[in-house]
Amino acid sequence: MTSAVVTRFAPSPTGYLHIGGARTALFNWLYARGRGGKFLLRIEDTDRERSTPEATAAILKGLDWLGLDHDGEPISQHARADRHREVALELLDAGKAYKCFSTQEEIQAFRDAAKEEGRSTLFQSPWRDADPSTYPDAPYVVRLKTATEGTTVIEDEVQGTVKIRNDQLDDMILLRSDGSPVYMLAVVVDDYDMGVTHVIRGDDHLNNAARQMGIYTAMGWPLPVYAHIPLIHGPDGKKLSKRHGALGVEEYQAMGYPAAGMRNYLARLGWSHGDDEFFSDEQAKEWFDLKGIGKSPARLDFKKLENLCGQHIAATDDAALLAEIEAFFSATNQPALTPEKKELFKNALFCLKDRAKTFPELIDKAAFVFADRPIVPDEKAAKNLDTVSRGILSELTPHLQNASWTREALEEVLNQFAEARELKFGKMAGPLRAALAGRSVSPSVFDMMIVLGREETLARFNDAANG
C-alpha cells in the first residue's frame, strides 16, 4: 500500500544548495513527515553542460546538515531519458502530439511577420494537422497538441485559482530534433512515476504548471496538488542575491548557525502558525500546512535568524549540542577537540549555551576551557592583575584547598573572604576572571571553577598570583 502523501525536492545540480531551495525542501519534508508520507529527492541533471557531481554532493551535504532525510535513493532525471522519450512517442501515436519540421529560420520568420501585423508571436506550427504523407525526410521535433480554446485553470493551494487562456500557450516541444526529451516533459513523467501527490515549489514555476498540466491531461494522468510558494527576498525587499550576504546553506553552517534554528527560521519564512515563532521539529511537522503559506515574498532577517538560533542552542541537549559543534569544527577545517578538552567543554555547556546565538559566540565564551596554562591575559584582563590583586589571589588559595567544590560552598567561601577584607565581591571578580580565563568578560566565576575543578582552578590562581 502506498503512502497517501508523496512530496519531492528536485534541485538542479549546477551549484550549492541555495537558501531558497533549502526552504522548498523543508516545506516538502514537513508536509510529508507530518502526514506519515514520503519525501523523495530527484536530481534534475538534464542540463549536462552545467550539472556536476560536485554540485550534487554539495546539495546532498546541505540537506544532510539541515537534517532533511529523504526516502529511498536520489533519482537522476538524466538516467530516465528513455522513459521520458517513451511517453512522448506514446502521445505521438495517440495523435496528441505531432512531428514539427519547421526550421529555426521559419519560426523566426513567422514571429517577425506576426509582430509586424500586430498578431500574437506565439508560434503556430503548420505541421500540427498535416498529413503524414507530406512529411519530408528532415529533422523534426515532437510537439504537444495544446488546446487552442478555453482556459487552463490551476487550483493552487497558495496562489488560489489561476487562469491562463489556452491561446497564450504554444504547442510546446517534448522531444528535440536529436530525440532528447525536454525538461518540462521529464518533470511530469518523473512526478507521475514517483507517485508525487503534492508539488510544492517556487512560484517562478507557476507558468510551467499550466504547460505541464497539458501533458497530464493528454496522458489521462491525475494532477498533483500544486502549491507555488513565493520566493525569498533580501531585507530590502529585492530578489535575494550575493549582495544580501550568504546564499548557500553551507555558508550558514560555516557561520555557526545550529541546524535546528535554521529549520525553525526557514519554516517561519513565508509560513506562519498563529503567533508562534520558536518551535520544535515535532511541532513544525504537526502544524505545517499549505494554507499557512503567504502569497507575498518573505524577507530574510538575520536578527530573527540569530534570535531563534540562540533559543535553539539554549534548548538543545548537551550531548547533541556537542556533536553539532564538533561537526562545525570539521566543516570549518578547525582541529578536532582532544578527549580531555571535549569532556571539559561538554561539562561547561550549561554555562555557555544561554545567550549564545551562534557556535563561534559560544566557543568564544568557552575560552577558559580551551586555554592552557599558563593563562596569558588579554590587555583588558591584565589590568585587573595588579600587585594588590595578585596578593588577594595568593591569600585566597589556601581557603579553597579544603572547600567543598559545590557552587554554594564556593560562593560562601569567596563571599566570607571578601567580607573579612571589606571588599565588594565585584572588586574580586575581575582578577578571578583574569586568572581563570584571561578575559575581562567570561561566564560566572563560580561556573568556571566548577567546570575546571579544584586542581586546575588553584593552579591558575597560583600562576596569576606569581606572574
TrEMBL record:
Keywords: Aminoacyl-tRNA synthetase, ATP-binding, Cytoplasm, Ligase, Nucleotide-binding, Protein biosynthesis. The keyword Isomerase does not apply. The keyword Magnesium does not apply. Residues 5-306 form the Glutamyl/glutaminyl-tRNA synthetase class Ib catalytic domain. ATP binds at residue 242. It comes from the Bacteria. GO terms for molecular function: ATP binding; glutamate-tRNA ligase activity; tRNA binding; zinc ion binding. One of its GO terms (cellular component) is cytosol. It catalyses: tRNA(Glu) + L-glutamate + ATP = L-glutamyl-tRNA(Glu) + AMP + diphosphate. A motif ('HIGH' region) lies at residues 11-21. Its main location: cytoplasm. InterPro entries: aa-tRNA-synth_I_cd-bd, aa-tRNA-synth_I_codon-bd_sub2, aa-tRNA-synth_I_CS, aa_tRNA-synth_I_cd-bd_sf, Glu-tRNA-ligase_bac/mito, Glu/Gln-tRNA-synth, Glu/Gln-tRNA-synth_Ib_cat-dom, GluQ/Sye. GO terms for biological process: glutamyl-tRNA aminoacylation. This is Glutamate--tRNA ligase.
